[in-house]
Structure formats: C-alpha cells, structure tokens
Amino acid sequence: MFGFFKRKMREIKSPVDGQTVALESVKDDVFSQKMVGDGIAVIPMSEIFAAPIDGVIERIFPTNHAYTIRSDRDLTVMVHIGLDTVALEGKGFERLANEGDRVSCGDPVIKADLAYLKEYAKDMITPIVISEDSDVKKIEKKYAIVKAGDTIMEVM
Known about the structure:
Oligomer: single chain
Strand content: 35-45%
C-alpha cells in the first residue's frame, strides 16, 4: 500500500570499456578523499566516453577532459577522464556532444586519443563521481572488467 514511498534503484553505467577500481585508489586526493562526491573509477581500454545515465549534459569542461550529466530527477554524474588532464589544454580530446544536449545512456560524449594521453597524462584512471547535491542514500559499486554500458553502480 505504501510502495510509492519506496526509493527507486537507479543504475549508473560505465561510460567506457575498462576495469573498475575503488575511487579511494585514485592518486588524487580530490577524488580519493571524495571531496567532490562518491563513486568509482575506471581504467579505460577504449577511446569513446559515453553518457553513464540518461539526462542533459550540464557541463563539458573547455578542455574536454571532463563532463557532467544531470538526470531529469535528482542525479548528477561527472566523468573525469584521466588525472591532471586539464593541463593538456584539450589536446587528445574531441567533443562529440555539447552542453545542453539531451543524451541517453551510452550516447558518445568525448573521444579520447588514448595513445596520446597515456604518453602525456599523469594517469588515465577515470573517476565517475556522483555529485554531492544528488539525492542518494546508498551506493552499491561493482568491481569488474566492464564494457561501456555495463552497470557499475546502483544508487538509491
């Protein structure tokens, strides 16, 4: 009778093929200390980074190294490709979508030149972070080798 008050489980999908690891293992305190929110990280093995949820692209950084997508309800997810990649000033990244675009989970957002980034970036590990302003009470994380579109987190 009161099932309409029950929180709905929402899935966050991997934006890229790779290996998921704990956010705490990221060698950047902003992420490992969860200063911008909780989540998971992926060591990418493919060049296309996609939308991890359905929603609107809220922001793509001018250097194309990170983007956020906001769901229609109460969830904002940031994908940050590599560490210290902002210092590359956009080299190695190609924007495939734009701020304000409505995207479905799996739609391509950024193409990254992995060979270039592996040579010049500090690390290719890619944090996927649920922003602190999201309405999330619980996060279940899945650690595995994943394909883009596989579920990596379930949130309530």
